[in-house]
Amino acid sequence: MRDWLRRGEWWSCAKPSRSKKLDGLTKWLAARFRQHAGNADVVRQDLAAEKGIHVSLRTVERAVAPLGQN
Question: Using an 8 Å Cβ cutoff, are 9 and 23 in contact?
């Protein structure tokens, strides 16, 4: 740490890229979100029943958040 302070350099840490459980399901999530009138918990239940993907409610809420702003 002192070394980069002495040189006066700064750079941001790169975030590691990792796959997410909901990658590739954007259209499916959007359709279900509209079908269930914005109820993310029901979307989460459909996700578990139909796709076998078990995630938290908060994960689904984050995934559909941009859809609720329309």
Answer: no
Residue 57, number of CB atoms within 10 A of its CB:
12
Helix (H) or strand (E) holding 30: helix 26-35
pTM of the model: 0.71
Structure tokens at 69: 């702003």
Enumerate the domain spans of the chain: 17-68
Counts of helices then strands in the chain (DSSP H, E): 4, 0
pLDDT tens-digit profile of 5-60?
677 766 677 777 777 888 889 999 999 999 999 999 999 999 999 999 999 999 99
- What is the radius of gyration, based on Cα positions, of the chain? 19
